[in-house]
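Researcher: Go.
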Amino acid sequence: MSESRYRSTRILDNNYYESVDFPSKEELDSINTFRVRVARFERLDNLAFKHLGGGEYWWVIALINGLEWPYAFEEGQIIKIPIELDDVLRLF
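Model: Structure:
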């Protein structure tokens, strides 16, 4: 019988995971934003790179717009983008 390749894997306890408190709708609504019309084949990571300085901030645009997943928008839709990225990051 072979031995498991996971035999020396460290098991994490429940304290390893931290919970994140998401901002309230009121907090998100208080952030200054500008509006952008989504172009054909546009992606949130591209919009984040263009307007927020990095594609890794796609989740900020999704959060501000209440999008449940990154492709939950359509061509021609108008979405909000925060003017200052720090205004959103400060809420976490």
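Model: The radius of gyration is 19 Å.
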